[in-house]
Amino acid sequence: MKFEEFVSYVQEHILDGAPDLKGKAKVNVKKYMKNNGKEVTALTIFENDSNVSPTIRLEDYFRAHVRGKSIEDCIQEMLKVYNTYKIGEFDIGAYIDDFGKAGPHLIMKLLSREKNEALLEDLPHFIFGDLAVTFSVCVSDIFGRGGIAVTYAMMEDWGVREDDLLEASFANMQENDTTVIFRFDPESVLGNYGTSVSDHMPHIEKGWPYVLTSAEGIFGASAMLRLDVLQGFADKAECNIFIVPLSIDECLLVQDDGLVNTEQLERVLTEINRDVNPEEYFLSNSIYYYDRKRHVLHHSGSIAPMVLTKAGECNEAG
Predict the structure, then answer these.
(1) Residue 71: which of 156, 129, 5, 134 has the closest Cα?
(2) CA pair distance 256, 50, nearest whole angstrom
(3) What is the per-residue pLDDT across 4-23, written as a single tens digit (0 to 9) for each?
(4) Is 131:111 a contact under the CB 8 Å cutoff?
(5) Spatial distance between the Cα atoms of 162 and 141, rounded to a whole number of angstroms
(6) If residue 247 lies in a helix (H) or strand (E), which one and from where to where?
(7) Residue 196's pLDDT is what?
């Protein structure tokens, strides 16, 4: 069975497994663009006048079907996801239409500029070196990793500017205790999420790399925009810091103690991006550097500070 046939069958028959939804729900299938040009096919089920539904990515289930799972079992798993994450009465329009309600839920997201040129045409964003800072409204984790991406159309309807989006999302990052740092330990990384740098900066052990991310481990690479956090870490470590963008979700802070250099870190990062990272999580093959005496962040091969610049204006310094 080809993927297109799989999609058609699922769309036509998924409600057969949920007779209570027949005549009360509509099944939609659409393609949409994710990070780095990755196109995915998503299924949603809308009951009656509900305007929200979990997004079910069909590629994942098709791969399971190719590996031997029956299409009926795939459908049952999709319905389980739907029933687990559907939230009933929720007016998403209240957030989309009202910046006063959306503002407290704005987050920043770092993307690769080169790999997202088409996507960025519709999104207000800032340029940050080889990266782009975009914005999303995250009102609930059921919306997945991207929340609701803020578009130029939404920004115009709200009557705000890019600077307003940046100010609100940056304030949320600081005020909501969403930035965490912990020592990198491959065997227990997942257990470390949740301790905010606003509670305390961790004790820095010499020679160990540290993970910089968000409390939920989602879109945490944007924490590298917090120069106050980088400064606090560098001061405690008593050295400058290499920043390795492992993915859109996290960065690695490596102490510049003379034992590693940019070329070594670039080789490791390139291998991770080639062999480990799914394409949609890729952020950059560049290594960044924080100079604790100059209080600046820059590409490792340059001394020009990286600065946020509105799209359409002159590029960043250097």
Answers:
(1) 5
(2) 53
(3) 999 999 999 999 999 888 88
(4) yes
(5) 24
(6) none
(7) 59
Residues 156 and 184 in one domain: no
Residue numbers in the chain where pLDDT is lower than 70: 49-52, 85-95, 139-147, 186-200, 314-318
DSSP designation for 299? E
Q: Find the domain containing 271 and state its range.
A: 179-306
- Distance CA(173)–CA(221), nearest Å, equals 12
Residue 275 backbone dihedrals phi, psi, to 5 degrees? -105, -20
For residue 318, what pLDDT is reported?
Answer: 38
Torsion, Cα 74 11 144 119, to 10 degrees, reads: 130
Bridge partners (DSSP) of residue 160 are: none
Kindly state whether residues 162 and 214 are assigned to the same domain: no
Strands 25-33 and 39-47: what pairing?
Answer: antiparallel
Please report the pLDDT score of residue 47 as a whole number: 84
Same domain, 197 and 298: yes
At residue 11, the pLDDT reads 95
Q: Angle of helix 71-85 relative to helix 3-13, nearest 10 degrees?
A: 60
Looking at the fold, whether 184 and 300 belong to one and the same domain comes out as: yes
Threshold 0.85, pTM exceeds: no
Of 64, 85, 106, the position where a domain reaches its end is 85
Summary count for the chain: helices (H), strands (E): 10, 14
Which residues are CB-contacts of 227 (< 8 A; sequence separation ≥ 6)? 290, 295, 296, 297
Whose structure tokens read 């309807």? 157
Overall number of domains in the chain? 3
For residues 194 and 171, membership in a common domain is answered with no
Task: Please tell me whether residues 47 and 116 are part of one structural domain.
Answer: no
Q: CA neighbours within 13 Å on the CB side: how many for 313?
A: 12
